[in-house]
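Task: sequence in, structure out. Protein: YtxH domain-containing protein.
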Amino acid sequence: MTVNKRFNAKKIPDMSNAFKVFAGFIAGAAVGVAAGYLLNSDKKEEWIESLKDYADEWKEKADEWKEKAKEKAKDWNDKAKRKKAHVNDAIEDAIAG
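Result:
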């Protein structure tokens, strides 16, 4: 008997919708409690400043990635234009024959 015949994936129970809702509720409650604790703590300003710094770092990274993507797109566009010109020249040469 092969492994595939012994193991039937359809027999593995799927999470019920009720469990998914319950798990989502618990996760949301945990995030809410953590946010409430942090915002009401003595270090609230420190946490907010830290989050702002973190967000600024990621914004800078995103801007760098955006610029790199623009450069790559321009390079690919220029390369495609050169290839197109080369193909057009080859076609014209073939037609002029």
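The radius of gyration is 29 Å.
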